[in-house]
Design brief:
By secondary structure, this protein is of the alpha/beta class. It has 2 domains: 9-164, no CATH class; 177-424, Rossmann fold (3-Layer(aba) Sandwich), CATH 3.40.50.200. It has helices at 33-44, 52-58, 190-193, 232-242, 261-270, 289-295, 375-392, 398-407; strands at residues 9-11, 14-16, 22-23, 63-70, 78-84, 90-98, 101-113, 116-126, 131-139, 145-151, 157-164, 177-182, 207-208, 247-252, 275-278, 301-305, 328-334, 353-356, 360-363, 369-372, 423-424. Strand 13 (207-208), helix 4 (232-242) and strand 14 (247-252) form a beta-alpha-beta unit. It starts with 8 loop residues before the first strand and ends in a 7-residue tail after the last strand.
Length: 431
């Protein structure tokens, strides 16, 4: 763990910090990440209506980098303040408040390594400014990374989660190759280690297009590097259960640069994937222009989620679902009776299929059993159906495969008027 010490310059007028603020004689700045987090909570959490300038003045040795308030107008619910520290590390302060009262206070420490900021520690305090828990990112032997859950003393370990792991050893099991584009995959779990597509040397196929490294481990860190969303593993558990002979090629989607989606499509096709399972989407058409151009050039069937915004995407588009591509099927979630699920998107032109995807049994990244709902879980069910069809008839073209799937759809017996273009598949796991 990196730490920094500030050499104090003793002047005849007194002692000064790097920010030009006076320090008491004999006082020193924190020398550890935990020390800075504790100091930030102690000095800044109790301050009502904290501003960036006030935070800089109170946290000795720091200087303001950025301040944001959400919403920008009116009383903010979240105030975020970035402060640079001696040695070029940073600490980020987040005040979450409602009706003028502090609900939670977060202090996140970032260490500067090779001119980049790496997340290290998050301390979480309650509305009374008492630290209740913390999360620390720990690097072990390359490429292992762990996320440690700590008690409020920032020392006692509660449990650890894997953030990155090496590929497991094994051999390619054969079968139809399905590329899964999601938050990644906990590929070291027993459920998946023997289900990975591999090259002739036994190295699993797949890539992390978020971090641009070979290990696409499950974790969407868009909300916080300390609070990753584990989505891909649960989705994949559905796929491997309903297509037991299929093999997986996991890709972690490129949130920092969505133009990399073109590389994912090309890599998937080059690796022999016939199916691309994509339980993701966004409101920005620019995110998907590279994907659309690449998919149109490859003989691969993309199974895409319609989304879970509770809206008609014909009128209020969601991409890539609304793209007019011949080698793409858009799927949404229904209940077991054929009724569009609450919160799931629909579209008589843009959405092709709805199928039961509510309370679907899943295995999460910890290996725990549970259930999940929504269009994201309709994707692996339809992708599994496509994989089974290809397993039986490997010579099917993508157009023929699409026709076989559409032929299974019927009008919903419970929707008074159609909400999707093709229809409802009552049981996609039935053969």
């Amino acid at each position: 763990m990196r730490s920094y010490r500030l050499s104090l310059l003793v002047l005849c007028a007194g002692v000064f910090s790097a920010a030009g603020l006076p320090l008491a004689i004999g006082q020193s700045l924190p020398t550890t990440e935990r020390g800075w987090a504790e100091l930030a909570v102690a000095t800044l959490c109790p301050v009502d209506d904290l501003s960036g300038i006030e935070a800089q003045s109170r946290l000795t040795g720091s200087w303001l980098v950025e301040e944001t308030r959400h919403p920008a107008d009116g009383e903010p619910g979240v105030v975020t303040i970035r402060l640079a520290l001696p040695g070029a590390d940073e600490i980020s302060i987040e005040r979450r408040q409602a009706a003028g009262r502090l609900r939670q206070f977060r202090a996140s420490y970032f260490a500067r390594i090779d001119d980049e900021l790496a997340p290290r520690l998050l301390a979480i305090a309650d509305g009374g400014c008492t630290i209740q828990s913390a999360r620390e990112i720990r690097q072990a032997e390359h490429p292992w990374f762990y996320l440690d859950q700590l008690d409020g003393n920032l020392t006692t370990l509660r449990w650890s989660e894997t953030l990155q792991a090496p590929w497991p050893e094994g051999s390619d099991p054969g079968g139809v190759r399905v590329a899964l584009v999601d938050s990644g995959l906990a590929y070291d779990m027993n459920l998946f280690r023997d289900r990975l597509a591999r090259d002739p040397k036994g190295v699993p196929l797949g890539y992390d297009y978020w971090d641009l490294d070979p290990w696409p481990y499950d974790g969407d860190v868009s909300r916080s590097p300390f609070l990753p969303i584990r989505h891909g593993t649960a989705v994949a558990s559905v796929l491997v259960r309903e297509a037991p002979d299929a093999t997986l090629i996991p890709f972690r989607y490129p949130r920092p640069d969505m133009s990399r989606m073109a590389d994912i499509v090309s890599d998937a096709a080059r690796a022999g994937a016939r199916i691309l399972a994509m339980p993701l989407g966004s409101n920005r058409i620019d995110d998907w222009s590279a994907f659309a151009a690449a998919l149109a050039q490859h003989d691969i069937l993309a199974i895409v989620s319609a989304g879970n915004n509770g809206r008609d995407i014909d009128r209020n588009p969601l991409w890539p679902a609304v793209l007019p591509l011949e080698n793409m099927i858009v799927v949404t979630s229904a209940d077991g009776f054929g009724r569009l699920a609450q919160g799931s998107n629909w579209g008589l032109e843009s959405v092709d299929i709805m199928l039961p995807a509510e309370n679907v049994p899943i295995i999460d990244f910890r290996g725990a059993s549970g259930t999940a709902s929504g269009s994201s879980y309709a994707v692996p069910r339809l992708a599994a159906l496509a994989a089974r069809l290809l397993q039986r008839e490997p010579s099917l073209t993508i157009g023929q495969l699409r026709e076989r799937i559409f032929a299974r759809a019927t009008p919903s017996p419970f929707e008074t008027s159609p909400v999707v273009a093709v229809g409802w598949i009552p049981d996609p796991s039935a053969d």
